[in-house]
Amino acid sequence: MEQRGKVRGDYSEEEMELRRGPWTVEEDFTLINYIAHHGEGRWNSLARCAGLKRTGKSCRLRWLNYLRPDVRRGNITLEEQLLILELHSRWGNRWSKIAQHLPGRTDNEIKNYWRTRVQKHAKQLKCDVNSKQFKDTMRYLWMPRLVERIQAAASSSAPAAPPPPPPYHLNTPNSSSSSFGQPTNNMVASQTTPDNSSASESTENYAVIHNQEYSYPPNHNSCYADQQTLTNQTDFFNQGLDFNTQWIMDDTAAAHNLWDVDDIWLLQQQFNNNV
DNA sequence: AAGAATCACAACCGCCGCTAA
DNA sequence: GTTAGCGGCGGTTGTGATTCT
Question: What angle is formed at CA A179 by the lines to CA A84 and CA A87, rounded to 5 degrees?
Answer without folding.
Answer: 10
